[in-house]
Amino acid sequence: MEHRPPSLLCNAAAMDVVLLGTGTPLPDPDRAGPATLVRADGRNFLVDCGRGALMRLAGAGVRNPTWLEAVFITHLHSDHTCDFNEVLTMWWASNAGDVPLKVVGPVGTRDWVDRTLAMMSDDIKFRMDHHHDLKWRPRCDVTEVADGMAYDVDGMRVTSALEDHGPVKPALGFRFEHGGASAVLAGDTKPCEGLDRLCADADAYVQTVLRPELVKNLVDMMELKRLEDILDYHSSVEDAAKTAQRTGVGTLVLTHMLPFCPVGTEGEWVDQARADFNGSVVVGPDLTSVTV
Q1: What local confidence, expressed as pLDDT, does residue 11 receive?
Q2: Domain span holding position 43
Q3: Which terminus has fewer CB within 10 Å in the chain: N or C?
């Protein structure tokens, strides 16, 4: 298992997991919104499309969205989807032909994509009126999944499982397998049976986490008790570490760190995880890459 700092290059012979955005809904000048790139043999798969995903894709070397093979959506919370329209717009405007963007997500994704396209209608008209060779409208090939096989093409197998993100139903995690390597992209969830199934003996497990003490400090500072609600539908660092230990994970990767993780404080999160997990722990800035 190799953990590398931000880099434009990934190992084409292995499977790389690149943390495009490690931030939260709270705006952060150093961390983009939740998004992760999985890359294997030059193939690119985007998991979630949080704030700044398109920019971070360019930072990871994917400068043209048409280089994406598919986009996977874990759930339909805005912080995980708000850059989808940008990804879709540039996929469409940069393509030489009428090619749909492949999208895999939970039940409800197809209707959400349709609503997104409706929201884009003014911009679509403007671009088609201006670019006379752009004679087709953007479209998506949507696959809605729950538990089971989500994607199986040319050696890349992706399985999905239903997870527990409170009232956000359905919410999914994904397990990517290629060339004998495996990586779990868990999205937002608290510990649950579906998550354990995905993580069993995985080489890497990427998990949204929070630190309850920091959340409570922020609640007091902002005098906004509503923020405490996030405590009951995310994994804490301790939860994620125990899931990783219980399921035999090789490397635990923390991301989407709630309520915030100032650059330079990652060691605090690592130390908390190591109290309950004997494997490798990775916490880093945007564009941190883990090779499995």
Answers
A1: 54
A2: 2-197+282-291
A3: N
